[in-house]
Specification:
Blueprint (H helix, E strand, L loop, with lengths): L1 H16 L13 E9 L11 E8 L8 E9 L6 E8 L2 H6 L1 E9 L2 E5 L4 E3 L7 E5 L1 E2 L3
Parallel strand pairs: 1-8
Antiparallel strand pairs: 1-4, 2-3, 2-5, 5-6, 5-7, 6-9
Length: about 140
């Protein structure tokens, strides 16, 4: 019986000694950046009071407002196409499910353009340059 307890104690000590070697850091780089261009469908000079807001959001929670993971605000960007760079934080697992890029262009105190179609940001295209086409709101 003493030998069995000693043997089990030694096995437990060996098993636990390896726990210090476990890598519990998430897979991939959680600090990322989405780069790209925003197209209005035509080359257009925008008014001086134009504000462009680009957000990377996680819309996976049904019925909840999307979680904003990163945002960039550009004031008076000049003419389209408009270059953007949004720094955001997302683990590989979140990118496997997919995130969305949302764009809003406002001037004169109103939203004038937005992307009607969802633009998916995934683990497969996260490093690519993204081209987002926005549509007029009709106002």
């Amino acid at each position: 019986m003493k030998h069995l307890i000693a043997l089990l104690s030694a096995a437990a000590a060996l098993a636990l000694s390896g726990c210090g070697q476990l890598d519990l850091t998430p897979e991939g780089d959680p600090s990322r950046a989405a780069n790209g261009r925003i197209d209005l469908g035509e080359a257009a000079a925008l008014p001086a009071d134009t504000v462009v807001t680009v957000r990377v959001v996680d819309s996976s929670a049904a019925g909840m407002p999307p979680e904003v993971l990163g945002t960039q605000t550009l004031r008076n960007p000049g003419a389209a196409p408009i270059a953007f760079r949004v720094e955001y934080r997302a683990e590989d697992e979140l990118l496997r499910r997919g995130l969305n890029i949302e764009v809003r262009i406002s001037y004169g105190g109103r939203v004038r353009y937005f992307n009607r179609n969802q633009y998916a940001l995934t683990l497969g295209n996260a490093a690519n340059e993204h081209r987002i086409t926005v549509n007029p709101t009709g106002t």
